[in-house]
Design brief:
Blueprint (H helix, E strand, L loop, with lengths): L1 E5 L3 E8 L4 E5 H9 L4 H15 L2 H4 L2 E6 L5 E7 L1 H8 L7 H20 L1 H14 L4 H23 L6 H15 L3 H7 L15 H20 L4 H27 L14 H11 L1
Antiparallel strand pairs: 1-2, 2-3, 3-5, 4-5
Helix pairs in contact: 1-2, 4-5, 5-6, 6-7, 7-10, 8-10, 8-11, 10-11
Length: about 280
């Protein structure tokens, strides 16, 4: 979860959606920033009702996700991407709308830059992780893992797998076969209790490596077997995860140490944890 500062005083809650590769923003936070309304939730409900009556698709496409509220609790709120927000603010009479439009345009421009030059996206990603306290060695694995994940999801898309729910099911199959846990179970194992906690951002080097092996193996099997549709790709996911699972168990047997770790980086940054482990050895 990130809070993007707007005009130095307002914060817009945001979250990166790894499935669609886009930022999603809390609509009520944008409403609050633009209108200075004392009750942005009510303002949004009234605006939504009016726009729905007018048939504005930018509203009907808004998803609801849990985000941390002002009291620290996770509450469901409507979220929208940059394009949806740009359409929404056309309907909000406000003198602060123009600078907000420029801010959204900057977000969109940076995304276009990254599409044209993927290396730029990787560079920005590395800078972000570095600022969060991750080591260069970990960052390289994380970036490589993202590329492997992208290759897999692109393969699924070409093979008729539906996004969101089916992607999640197939990912769970790979994880279960690789680690003996689904991502949800793995998050619980690592005490990651917030919906916005990204499991992979709390994996150590070996956990990332075996995650990559499971997903890369799945991609290779799906291609070689020309898996089509959800059922065939689920079989490929189980087989790909099994490849990584056998390798994991073999390493655990030979090293005498469990690969899966309860360690997370919520309190202690990865780079610091790495140094502690090195000193311990």
């Amino acid at each position: 979860m990130n809070n993007i500062k707007l005009f130095e005083s307002k914060s817009i809650r945001s979250i990166w959606d790894e499935t669609s590769h886009r930022w999603l923003f809390a609509v009520v936070d944008v409403i609050a920033a633009l209108t200075e309304s004392r009750n942005p939730q009510v303002y949004w409900r009234v605006l939504k009702k009016r726009l729905l009556t007018e048939g504005n698709e930018s509203v009907t496409n808004c998803n609801a996700l849990k985000m941390a509220a002002a009291d620290g609790k996770q509450r469901v709120t409507d979220v929208a991407d940059a394009e949806q927000l740009f359409r929404l603010i056309q309907s909000i009479p406000s003198p602060t709308a123009e600078p907000f439009k420029r801010w959204l345009a900057k977000v969109g421009y940076e995304r276009l830059e990254e599409i044209e030059n993927p290396e730029l996206a990787a560079t920005r990603m590395r800078e972000l992780y570095k600022a969060k306290g991750y080591s260069d060695a970990w960052i390289e694995k994380r970036v490589r893992g993202i590329a492997i994940r992208d290759e897999l999801t692109n393969e699924w898309k070409k093979r008729g797998v539906k996004e969101q729910r089916e992607y999640s099911i197939l990912t769970a199959e790979i994880s279960r076969a690789t680690f003996g846990m689904t991502p949800a179970e793995y998050k619980e194992f690592k005490s990651l209790d917030k919906p916005a906690d990204n499991l992979r951002d709390h994996m150590n080097d070996l956990e990332l490596i075996f995650t990559m092996l499971g997903e890369a193996s799945t991609t290779e099997i799906a291609r070689n077997k020309d898996a089509q549709g959800f059922v065939e790709n689920r079989d490929a996911a189980s087989q790909g995860g099994a490849v990584a699972g056998r390798a994991r168990r073999d390493l655990e047997k030979k090293s005498g140490k469990r690969i899966t770790s309860k360690e997370n980086y919520k309190q202690l940054p990865e780079a610091v944890a790495r140094k502690i482990v090195k000193k311990g050895n």
